[in-house]
Specification:
By secondary structure, the chain is of the alpha+beta class. It is about 45% helix and about 15% strand. Helix 6 packs parallel to helix 8. The two termini are about 25 Å apart. It comes from Aldrovandia affinis.
């Protein structure tokens, strides 16, 4: 929610020290973090030190539903027999499986998509920061534009929609009190022109509501 990345290398160091296993939830990393979009463990160079990865097919991979867990075979065998969400859920629709499989194939075939995401993310973050906005996190495509006041976040989001830019205001209880923000999510489908248009709309509405000068 804050657009930051877990200190996974340090977590793996603790795992080594205490003989623990490392489980990561990659729902906000799969498909765009790392040179080929494989996630936080690839980004931080610890793929061989993470034991279990849980993620979704319904976000960056575009499948709209479903998810997966990868890990040691004994664990996966256990989950197949004892995991209630797995046992009591219907199978994924074939189109979702096909779409998600193709998305993974595209990511593994070239680093172009992941690198494009990184470039567009930094284009947005740098331009917004230069304009006077506070953007939480560092290099994550989830870019929270911090505003503090819940009503202000809602008003600006509504005004942005009038300019043809769809963003969402988040406030308590989704985020802590006083930490209201508008969350912008950069997509591989966005062009540089789309990013620049979004920034221009934020500047226009930010000036209207007294957020930036």
């Amino acid at each position: 929610m804050d657009g930051d990345v877990a200190p996974l290398k340090e977590i793996c160091d603790l795992s080594d020290r205490y003989g623990a296993m490392v489980f990561i939830d990659e729902c906000h990393a799969t498909g765009f973090l790392g040179p080929r979009g494989r996630g936080t463990d690839e980004l931080l160079g610890v793929m061989d030190r993470v034991h279990i990865v849980n993620s979704t097919l319904g976000k960056a991979l575009g499948g709209a539903a479903g998810g997966y867990t990868v890990g040691p075979k004994p664990l996966i065998d256990l989950l197949r027999q004892r995991s209630r969400p797995y046992l009591f859920s219907n199978s994924l629709p074939p189109p979702v499986v096909g779409c998600s499989t193709r998305a993974v194939e595209l990511l593994l075939a070239s680093n172009e998509i992941a690198q494009s995401m990184t470039a567009k993310t930094m284009r947005f973050r740098n331009a917004m920061t230069a304009a006077g906005f506070t953007i939480s996190g560092k290099a994550h495509p989830i870019c929270p534009v911090m505003l503090g006041d819940a009503r202000l976040a809602s008003l600006i989001a509504d005004d942005m929609l009038k300019l043809g830019v769809y963003v969402i205001g988040f406030s308590y209880p989704v985020v802590p009190k006083g930490k209201a923000r508008i969350r912008v999510q950069i997509s591989a489908a966005h062009s540089e022109e789309d990013v620049d248009r979004c920034v221009d709309a934020f500047i226009q509405m930010g000036r209207k509501h007294g957020v930036v000068s």
